[in-house]
Design goal:
By secondary structure, the protein is an alpha+beta fold. Helix 11 packs across helix 15. The protein is 39% helix and 13% strand. It is globular and about 65 Å long. Strands 6-8-7-12-13-11-9-10 form an eight-stranded mixed sheet, with helices on both faces. It contains 17 helices and 13 strands.
């Protein structure tokens, strides 16, 4: 089908539609893959979204004919989504020689779902930042304004989907890494409930349950159908979530009925929130009321700074452990890691074990507070991010680098810093631009970013909805309602402006 070889035609279809075209024989999987490669060749030089292309292999990759997404191209994130025989670097020079010995459960299910692996997308080192800039891969750029970041840590995936290289791409979220890039790139991103998607076989619970995999996509139905492909426990997983009454792809087509939605716009860390982010929430609240939902301003009652400290404590432990694994298994040296990463690793090594356990136990307080909130409301609505995208390189300020260096010297001198204001300063500095996403991670609850608002400059601004554990069906139903009421797919007609 010659029309499918035109970029304007390829950009018109989401993954569900492409799979349907292939299934009906109107176009071949190879033609779709060639269109994706052509698109990648045209725009990736400006965006740096794909860090490890597998174009030639993708053209000849076999796939099951009757699967949900048979023949549809997919990009994997270069973090945790291991593909047998291929590198998975976690965005780090310390892991550049890591070759996956076997497929992760995520990749196995994606392949069983008929998806064709086109390559891997860039991520910041260890997925630790809300920008996608690493010494290993360089900076990834936002398709809507290449001076800006696409967010992180799934920034390569967000940029690739927004730019039309693939209709959806692999992502994971340990503190907002699906939702932040979704907000900054104008795509849809759902972080599922803890345990909904298996982290096997390499982990039982990623980041002790704070992180989970899924995708970013241009349409809600692609995310819903992919959740059906990926969901379910694997042998040896720590627990099993009851499946939905029917597939998510079917469930999302039903109306959610009138919902009680609690709304808040103030940062839990008392940091500044950009007026555009507030405006996006207020505009969405009006849309919800017009759709028949009850909207009331109310925020969950929890200690925001305590959550920030607990979240940063998770960073300390996870980074120290991963660095040690890279040293022992791959021969990595300290100089292979970035300054911030080394600082986090040192903080992990010096944190007293009882304090780490105490912070992990405190996650329960946030879960109980959110549970009380959901006794009054079905969902919450808030900004996805507190600020619009930063400029490339903007966050690596001399002041930040000096602070990190001073703190490292303090740690090397054997001084304890975990109960000082220095760690609180670090927490606020790290999370101030994205203060709304960590709550869902520490509580294991589902949350999504929906691209319903755009600034006068043409930048997308996502809003976040969160629900109780296991409520992905309700979130997807509401997202589908909003997609119909305020369709964002039309914005992608502007994609030709980024062609190189």
């Amino acid at each position: 089908m010659e029309a499918m070889m035109k970029q304007s035609e390829y950009l018109r279809y989401d993954a569900v539609a492409l799979a349907d075209l292939i299934r009906r024989g109107e176009v071949s999987s190879r033609e779709v893959c060639e269109a994706a490669i052509e698109r990648a060749t045209r725009v990736n030089g400006r965006l740096n979204a794909i860090c490890y292309p597998q174009f030639s292999a993708a053209l000849d990759q076999p796939h099951p004919d009757s699967a949900t997404f048979s023949g549809v191209p997919l990009l994997l994130k270069d973090l945790a989504q291991e593909q047998e025989g291929h590198p998975c670097t976690y965005g780090s020079r310390g892991l550049r020689n890591h070759i996956a010995p076997k497929n992760s459960e995520y990749v196995r299910r994606a392949l069983d779902g008929g998806l064709v692996i086109l390559g891997r997308t860039a991520t910041p080192e260890f997925g630790l930042k809300a920008v996608t800039e690493s010494r290993l891969w360089g900076a990834t750029r936002n398709p809507w304004d290449t001076r800006l970041t696409p967010g992180g840590s799934s920034g390569g995936s967000g940029a690739a989907v927004a730019a039309g290289i693939v209709p959806m791409a692999g992502a994971n979220d340990g503190g907002g890494s699906i939702r932040i890039p979704a907000a900054y790139n104008g795509v849809f991103g759902l972080k599922p409930s803890r345990g909904r998607i298996s982290s096997g076989p390499y982990q039982g619970e990623a980041w002790t349950g704070a992180s989970t995999d899924h995708v970013v996509s241009r349409t809600v139905r692609d995310s819903a159908a992919m959740l059906d492909v990926l969901s379910g426990a694997a042998s040896g997983d720590p627990f099993v979530i009851p499946p939905p009454a029917e597939p998510f792809a079917s469930l999302m087509e039903k109306t959610p009925g009138p919902l009680r939605v609690g709304v808040f716009t103030s940062s839990p860390y008392h940091t500044e929130v950009d007026p555009h982010c507030v405006e996006a929430v207020e505009e969405t609240a009006r849309v919800l009321e017009n759709l028949g939902h009850h909207v009331e301003y109310a925020r969950p009652d929890f200690d925001g700074m305590a959550l920030a400290r607990c979240y940063l404590g998770l960073y300390f432990g996870e980074v120290a452990t991963l660095m040690e694994k890279a040293r022992s298994e791959l021969g990595a040296k300290d100089e292979d890691f970035e300054l911030d990463t080394r600082l986090l690793g040192m903080l992990g090594q010096t944190m007293p074990l009882p304090e780490y356990v105490s912070r992990r136990q405190q996650w329960n307080e946030f879960a109980r507070a959110l549970g009380a909130y959901f006794s009054r409301f079905d969902l919450y609505l808030c900004p996805t991010t507190g600020q619009l995208p930063a400029k490339i390189g903007e966050l690596d300020t001399p002041a930040h680098l000096q602070f990190a260096a001073r703190l490292m010297l303090t740690l090397k001198a054997g001084k304890l810093v975990h109960k000082t204001g220095q760690v609180d300063q670090m927490a606020l500095e790290s999370l101030a631009r994205t203060p709304f996403t960590q709550l869902a991670n520490l509580t294991g609850t589902p949350a999504m970013s929906v691209p319903v608002h755009w600034t006068a400059r043409g930048l997308p601004v996502g809003v976040q909805f969160g629900g109780a554990h296991g409520s992905e069906g309700t979130l997807l139903q509401l997202a589908a309602q909003l997609e119909e009421a305020r369709p964002w797919f039309a914005q992608y007609e502007r994609l030709e402006q980024i062609d190189g």
